[in-house]
Amino acid sequence: MAANVAKWNILSGRIRLLTAVVKRPHTCNITRSPSSCTVHKRKYATETSPNYDDTFKSAIENPEEFWAKAAEDLVWHKKWDKVLQNDNPPFTKWFEGGEISTCYNAVDRHVEAGNGDHPAVIYDSPITKFVQTITYSELQDEVSRLAGALRNLGVEYGDRVLIYMPMIPQALITMLACTRIGAIHSLVFGGFAAKELSVRIEHAKPKIVVSASCGVEPGKSVPYKPMLDGALELSSFKPEKCIIYNRPGFDFAPMTPERDEDYDLLVSMSDPVDCVPCPSMHPSYILYTSGTTGLPKAVVRPNAGHAVVLKWSMWHLYGMKPKEVWWAASDLGWVVGHSYITYAPLLNGNTTIIYEGKPVGTPDPGVYFRILKEHDVAGLFVAPTALRAIRREDPKAEYAKKYKPLKKFRGLFVAGEHCDKETMEWSREAFSAPVLDNWWQTETGWAITASCMGVGMDPYPAMGVAGKPVPGWNVQVKRKDGTIAKPGELGDIVIQLPLPPGSFSTLWDNDDRFMDLYFKRVPGYY
């Protein structure tokens, strides 16, 4: 395996040298907002920062003014005609009439601003013992060439591309390549086997499927390509082509003639293409909520609002300054992976980490601390399950001590499930940092409640508290009769419409179900 990896590194370098020679300038004819490259030079909130109460009030009472200001941090091809169009709730439209390229804002604008040599992605795979750094310039080249390859295979604006890949940079690159040309990606969690994958192929009807030869687990490889073949046999819908990334150091996947194309060969032979600005409400992606039975629920994420709030959230929620290293220890197949491995950190000009491994056993419960130290991580987003696994194997945090001090690390953010008091206390000591819970869903796309670091909230709130409503989310607790519950009284958690930018706009190909599931029981509320 080691010899194969070394051989691949030489080959990869030769291909990159060749493509660098013929590389063409990337221009998008996009007008730049004057404040598009603002760099925050703060630790967390300061005396000059807006406080939480004022920020929340502004977002609820003056949403158009509030989100218009946030949108100025991005580059628009065409400015919006109206920030908020809510004539037909809950089918709210944000930044109506605007046109924007999320890919341009996540990749190209950083290169054009002179930050092409800054690391965009760090891929850390302790299972394969491989670490790779990809700069913004390299990311731009790879993304634009894959986008060109997709276009050469007939992918056009609005077509779906289904992605079924392990935790490797090529998955993130494929997401951005789709966004670059206005295609709609649907990334399916790699843990799903053939049956679950076939249901999603049948529903999304992708023109192209992009997959890999295999994934890697401790002590074994996971056969992605055979599972894809099995899914395509089960599905009545057949994509036109499958692009297969053959992982270096592993056996090449058997290719189906006339259908399967080699990822590396396509990219090396394709010319780069420029970004396609898309209307504000154009879907960036569709993402299936968890579950393996019943009719799929495919959340639709609109283009502009998604980009605006994710860029805004990196400082205001997580206190992350551009160029700092951020790590969301999730899978790309979940909403955290979409929002906070791929889009939010790149929109903010951060370095994002793609981690292919486990919290324990790859090789030991100190691996998270090794990554924080080795890559100078400033913020970590993780599920409490991972922290419990580390604590179970290292109750006295002896492995953590090997990597102290973590000089750049400022905050640990947890979500996905309740974080119990014992795990939170252990984590505060082990990571020597605030541990901040936040709560959200696939449907919302970003946090509903959190301790917002960029607006001066307490980094050490009471244990078990998942923060306050994030600015933009008008969260209320109601009794069954529809009246507002008193503090401390149980009730239904509801959010008054309109939902803020970045939340889902509908379910794919099913507006009626969108209404029935989420909005009919309490009119005017999610």
TrEMBL record:
AMP-dependent synthetase/ligase domain residues: 113-496
Coiled-coil annotated spans: none
Superkingdom per UniProt: Eukaryota
Enzyme class, first EC level, given as a word: ligase
This enzyme's EC code(s): 6.2.1.1
Classification via Gene3D superfamilies: N-terminal domain of ligase-like
Residues in Acetyl-coenzyme A synthetase N-terminal domain copies: 52-106
Pfam family, one: AMP-binding
Residues spanning the signal sequence: none
Catalysed transformations (reactions): butanoate + ATP + CoA = butanoyl-CoA + AMP + diphosphate
Similarity comment: family membership: Belongs to the ATP-dependent AMP-binding enzyme family.
Name by which UniProt lists this protein: Acyl-CoA synthetase short-chain family member 3, mitochondrial
Organism encoding this protein: Tegillarca granosa (Malaysian cockle)
